[in-house]
Amino acid sequence: MQVAKNYLYNAAYQLLNIIVPIITLPYLARVLGKDGVGIASWTNSLVTYFLLIASLGIVTYGSREIAYIHNDFELRQKKFWEIQTIHFLAGFVAILLYIAFIYGGGAVNHRIHENELFLWYQIWVIFSGIFDISWYFMGLEDFKKTVLRNMLIKLLMTALIFWLVKKPSDVGAYILLLAISQVVGNLSMWFYLIGKFKLPKLSSLELNVHWKPVFLMFLPTIATQIYLQLNKTMLPFITGVTASSGIYDNADKIIKVCLALVTSVGMVMLPRMSAHFAAGEHDQMKKAIHSSMDFVSAIAIPLATGIAAVGPTAMLWFLGKSWGEVGTALVLLTPIIVFIGWSNVIGNQFLIPTKRLHDFTWSVTFGALLNVVLNFFFIFVWGVEGAAIATSLSELAVIGYQLVVTRKDMAVLAHFTGIWRYLVASAVMYVAVMCYVNSHGVGFVSTVVETIIGLFVYAIALLVLRAPILDQLKNRTFFR
Questions:
Q1: pLDDT (tens digit per residue) in 422-468
Q2: Which residues are CB-neighbours of 122 under 8 A, at least 6 positions away?
Q3: N or C: which end of the chain has fewer CB within 10 A?
């Protein structure tokens, strides 16, 4: 029941993540234009690599370690300070490296030099990562605090965007607003520890025991972020157009909004699966993974199909006719909703809790390397569309690798016993929606009607096909 509550908390936050872009993306697309959005996207992709150094693999590693000892307050307090001290040290190194990058990169590359001021604004993103202790509350399965904090910050940020960002030259204000709001949000979480945790004696901290596992968790994090950010980083260099990063980024943001609903399952299940593993409850883990895979498939497949049907025409009124290329990129990116949803279950609910970091690392490293290779060729030939194709193929490679390495631990095919029903239901939904799309004009009302038609047809199809997800919902067995 606790896991279901945590999922609902996350789902509520993800719902806000859906509403906010619906409000801000079209506003920013029109106010900042392609160049402004492109600058914000590109400079953020660059600072993200240094944020990775500051964060290491601490969010995943820390939540797992806290979950192992959640009933022992003294040990939990000690481990918190040990992990967070490493976090502070890594953050200091990241800031030094980022400053060196700005000065050094500006001297050898004109694009970096031209955007030097915006890169300085982005340094606040690294500070936000240093003070992020959400991993501690995730390990305690206390998602309420982080979700409510994030929702408040998100609402405040949205209001400030409309207040402070008025014209194309306000791109700097927009970058600062996003970065500093993250800092404020992460600092606010520390107030929950005041009066509960005491400052430690440095001599009592055992940092050495954490360096190796944190670094091992860092490797897959790097690999994952490389193929999440590399496209936006490489596009301006290869195409010579900064706006191309903004086009891809808008498509990517819309996909991520939907993807967040799917990956919430893995986030809330990680501490629970770690606890099952620590208690030796392996059968419970397998049952939970099977339920999660079915749940994710039931959500991800129709989401991907629905976006592919509605996206291209919706983008014309949502962002403006000049952003039509986003619709094409959107369709090409839709498969990653399914692929990432599945790999999130296998990775966060099995490989990480069972300490199979080697396999997890290699899966995302394989995907990252493939993405780098494909990017050079595909972006050169097809530009933004090429970047989207490369991302989808890379995510397919990740889940493929994970299924291969876990085939002896679980009945892999059993994960997909009900998938044909979701595929058939989604196909019927796609045909129904496209019939309406092809016979009606472009506009907000048309998109709303298309969405309602899609939801209604998919729900009816699930009932007719007697999809497994219906039994889970009826018996309340999901996430158990």
A1: 999 999 999 999 999 988 878 889 999 999 999 999 999 999 998 88
A2: 43, 44, 46, 47, 175, 179
A3: N
Residues in the chain: 480
Check: CB of residue 344 under 8 Å from CB of residue 265. Answer: yes
Unique residue bearing structure tokens 């010579």? 240
Q: How far is 224 from 338, CA to CA, in rounded Å? A: 16
| CA–CA separation, 303 and 318 (whole Å) | 18
3-state secondary structure of 96: helix
Nearest to 293 by CA among 161, 130, 416, 119: 416
How far CA 416 is from CA of 282, 326, 337, 342, in Å, comes to 20, 32, 16, 10
Instruction: For the beta carbon of residue 189, count every other beta carbon within 10 angstroms.
Output: 18
Tens-place pLDDT, residues 135-159: 888 777 766 777 777 788 888 888 9
CB burial readout 54-72, b (16+ within 10 A) else e: bbbbbbbbbbbbbbbebee
Measure the CA–CA gap between 469 and 456, rounded to whole angstroms.
Answer: 16
| Residue % of the chain over a pLDDT of 90 | 33
